[in-house]
Description:
Helix content: 25-40%
Number of strands: 11
Order of helices and strands: EHEEEEHHEHEHEEEHHE
CATH superfamily: Class I glutamine amidotransferase (GATase) domain
Strand order of the largest sheet: 2-1-5-6-10-9-11
Number of helices: 7
Structural class: alpha/beta
Mean pLDDT: 96
Low-confidence stretches: none
Strand content: 15-25%
Largest sheet: 7 strands, mixed
CATH architecture: 3-Layer(aba) Sandwich
CATH class: Alpha Beta
Radius of gyration: 15 Å
Amino acid sequence: MEIEIICYDGFDELDAIGPYEVLANGFNDGDRDGRVRMVTRDGREAVTASHGLRVGADGRLGDSDPDLVVVPGGGWADRSPAGTRAEYDDGRIPARLANLYDAGTTIASVCTGGMLVAKAGLFDGVKAVTHASALDDLAADGADVQDARVVDAGDLLSAGGVTAGLDLAFHLLAREFGDGVAERVAERMEYEPSGDVIVT
């Protein structure tokens, strides 16, 4: 299973790094083919996240023919010059997400990363969630907004604000690799995943 996490200037660190660690630990629990990679839209080698962390990238979004793409948020509510709103207005990441989804890739958003998925037109009429500050915006873009930490609509998943990305990642581990893997990783990470998950 190939997983890509799309990073861009201004993304929230925990939105991406939290799911990265959970999912990477899942691959390390047993002998599983696949990997988790940090990628950028244009193949840049590094980006600067919202709190100043420089993050290296392993390639360009879509280059590994991913089974799953995770889309972090960051910088939506404060209209930062770099972040989700800037990428929403730019439109290139949403366009790439739409193409990947049409080719069969599952898309999962964390926090206001959901706004990039909405801009791609993928949440039209779909049950979804995002950070509390963007729920009205998500609804205005056509999503059927839910009150949950994680919403699993099959090949489209979404998580609420920041720490909900951990719950999304644990849900994905259980869904893809089984409850036992998710439970072992949670025990090692000393984390109790939320059961507040809507599966549609």
